[in-house]
């Protein structure tokens, strides 16, 4: 089901807490709030250039956005009124609220900035050797800030005085980093094709996991005994954190943009430049579902109840796909299922033809009707 269309690549999608509304942003310079069920647009907000990201405040009365127009903006969700503009000297790559939402942490160009939300005043500026900052996060108590950059480093800072507490070095650009739950360890990943685990106190490198190309992301499992990573080498990999042993390799046909676990961690959802979203059985590595598109998939996630997959694409579409894990489809609908999941059909002459968008939507509708009738 198509929820809504942007005119260009969708960069980020966020759900409201009750799951009834979807907030999205795009390179078409717009932010859209829509009703998930009907697809009705409830609010449209605009920047002066592509919007890189968007999020809700805790009470969902405010919307925070950041853009290629060098600004961070705060909006009233009900009225759409612009409440605040914070200006950087380059495209803003990210922004987050502090826990009490009195401060905003953002990163752009070569610096990380902490702002007072009420006064718009810069409280702290942290710099990375004149190289692009890729991201930043607060520690749980918000006394520290972790940031990473194209200067090949992950850095830990004292938020109060801006003092640099730790520098961790990769061999090329660092694409991301996270804390372990107890914050005694730091997990980072890089263009140097590695995922690395570090002791936060000593800075000692505890583990190196190797892909064959750029690593785009990594996460811990809930019990932190496993690490899931994905790469431009077309794979998603599951690792044993203690031994570094590779437990599972899941293959796409092009670079993988992202991957997540289901809540029970029995499934892995991944998406790629190969224009597909794929669902995998974590234990066996079996491919359970493939959704194909006309352009690459930017992001995907489960709905709150995990009965649907929501995904968004470079061509500006946001779609949902219902999961029927407990349904047994009648054999007569197997060809229809294959067409929906592959995005292709077999012609009378025996040739394989790619379905048009309209054909795929119609077949998907019929397939979902068949599943609804199944028991």
TrEMBL record:
Pfam families xrefs: WD40 (PF00400)
Stored CDD domains: WD40
The organism's place on the tree of life at top rank: Bacteria
SMART domains in the record: WD40
Organism annotation: uncultured Sulfurovum sp
Segments traversing the membrane: none
Entry-linked InterPro entries: WD40/YVTN_repeat-like_dom_sf, WD40_PAC1, WD40_repeat_dom_sf, WD40_rpt
Entry coiled-coil feature ranges: none
UniProt keyword annotations, A-Z: Repeat, WD repeat
Name listed for the protein in its UniProt record: High-affnity carbon uptake protein Hat/HatR
Placement of WD repeats on the sequence: 44-85, 126-167, 167-208, 208-249, 249-290
Keyword Transmembrane recorded: no
SUPFAM superfamilies the record matches: WD40 repeat-like (SSF50978)
Keyword Repeat: yes
């Amino acid at each position: 089901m198509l929820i809504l269309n942007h005119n260009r690549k969708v960069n980020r999608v966020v759900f409201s807490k009750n799951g009834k509304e979807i907030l999205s942003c795009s390179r078409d310079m717009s932010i859209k709030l829509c009703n998930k069920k009907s697809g009705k647009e409830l609010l449209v907000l605009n920047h002066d250039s592509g919007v890189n990201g968007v999020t809700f405040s805790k009470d969902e009365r405010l919307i925070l956005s950041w853009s290629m127009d060098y600004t961070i903006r705060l909006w009233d969700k009900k009225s759409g009124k612009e409440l605040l503009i914070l200006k950087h000297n380059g495209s803003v790559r990210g922004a987050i609220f502090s826990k009490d939402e009195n401060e905003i942490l953002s990163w752009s160009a070569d610096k990380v900035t902490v702002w007072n939300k009420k006064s718009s005043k810069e409280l702290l500026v942290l710099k990375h050797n004149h190289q692009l900052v890729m991201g930043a996060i607060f520690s749980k108590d918000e006394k520290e800030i972790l940031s990473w950059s194209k200067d090949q480093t992950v850095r830990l800072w004292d938020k109060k005085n801006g003092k640099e507490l730790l520098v961790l070095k990769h061999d090329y650009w660092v694409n991301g980093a996270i804390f372990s739950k107890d914050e005694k360890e730091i997990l980072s990943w890089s263009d140097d094709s590695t995922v690395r685990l570090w002791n936060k106190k000593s800075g000692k490198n505890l583990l190196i996991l190797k892909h064959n190309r750029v690593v785009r992301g990594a996460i811990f499992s809930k019990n932190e005994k496993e690490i899931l990573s994905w790469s431009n080498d077309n794979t998603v990999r599951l690792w044993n954190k203690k031994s570094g042993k590779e437990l599972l390799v899941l293959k796409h046909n092009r670079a993988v943009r992202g991957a997540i676990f289901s809540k029970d961690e029995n499934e892995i959802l991944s998406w790629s430049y190969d224009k597909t979203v794929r669902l995998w059985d974590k234990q066996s590595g079996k491919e359970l579902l493939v959704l194909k598109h006309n352009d690459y998939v930017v992001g995907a996630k489960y709905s709150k109840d995990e009965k649907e997959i929501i995904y968004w694409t470079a061509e500006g579409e946001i779609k949902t796909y219902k999961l029927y894990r407990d349904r047994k489809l009648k054999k007569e609908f197997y060809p229809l299922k294959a067409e929906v999941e592959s995005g292709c059909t077999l012609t009378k002459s025996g040739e394989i033809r790619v379905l048009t968008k309209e054909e795929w939507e119609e077949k998907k509708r019929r397939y979902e009707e068949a599943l609804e009738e199944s028991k």
